[in-house]
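Rather than argue in generalities, we reproduce a single protein record, letters for residues, whole numbers for local backbone shapes, just as it appears below:
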Amino acid sequence: MRRSLPPARPRRHRLSRATALLGLMLALPQTAWAADTPPARLIGLGASYVADALDVADGGVARGGGLAARADAWVDVDGGALGVSRLTAHIDMIAVHGPVFSDAWVGDAQGISSIQAPGRHHLYEAWVRWQASDNAAPLAIATKVGLIDVNTEFDVQSVGALFVHASHGTGAELAQSGPNGPGIFPMTVSGALITASTAGKTTLRLGAFDAQAGSVANDHVPALRLPGTTGALLIGEVEFPLGQGEVQVGLWRYTRPLPRVDDAGHSAHSQGGYVLIEGLLAPHWHGWARLGLADPRSNPISCYLGTGVVREAGAWQLGVAMAHARLGSRARVALLPDAVVARTHETALELTAARPVAKWLTLQPELQYVIHPGWNPALRSALVWGMRFKLAWAR
């Protein structure tokens, strides 16, 4: 269940910050080259702006909508610039503005937009990666340490990444975990991981991340600590090929117990696992299915099922998907009054289509239908429509 969020600041301030960041993005290339930056093959610059214009046409908390967006500006450094060819570094600054649709209009628990969050701007990622052995070796080993988005390494849904709904990024049962999330958007976490890949492309990933994403005093502010300072999220994943696709199997656990969902005076370990199968179904057709489970004592969502298909049609990508989350037995007791008919699941159906209209711009019409939003029997199922805009630049 999502944590309560502070009220959003006036939109004119958020828009001015986003405009300023976009200006910085456009100025980056000129500034960098004027300072005699190493050649482009050693330094990579990039920027992106993703905006969701969504509106609730019926049901939910209220009718209405708005524009939420995420802007990123990043620098990638190849270790060759320092004479260390197997070292790479990455720094990403982020700014977020706009309303949180799920709180203001829909009332759902999972999140109808993967970029909705309270307005903020901060350092998002800052890490270094060391390739310990060559990729052509029988066993290729790499390590990564720093401020990391856990979802860039674990539970990565390649086919599902097309969709706007948040659960097609990180599964709902994992996304809900941790005191301030498991180190995914909008707040990353300090951590370290090791990756080992065989020549047959079977890959093992093991990671240790601090349990608290962001500062302990203010979880809207990033913090770089030694992993485990406030407890740790331990996560492992094995990925292996299957036909024309792949399978991911992951397990995760927090080392420090968290308050139980039905009794805050007692605690229990937050832990769970997931299985993801995705790949080519037929020419131009891709699909995936993901099942995730979490300990119902410390996690409201104990079971999540996501699935969908994507069709390539010329320049278009057409997709339909489902995100289904179920309340655990303990959460039902704590969150659902005995006097009402219990709604123990929330299901979001999504229909989307994306097409690049320029090298730097992609447009994506969007339609969602959220059944039983937020498990709340007082809310009718919500019909959501809108458009996603993706702007990207890289050099």
Remarks:
- The helical segments are 11-34, 101-106, 172-175, 329-335.
- The first strand starts at residue 43 and ends at 60.
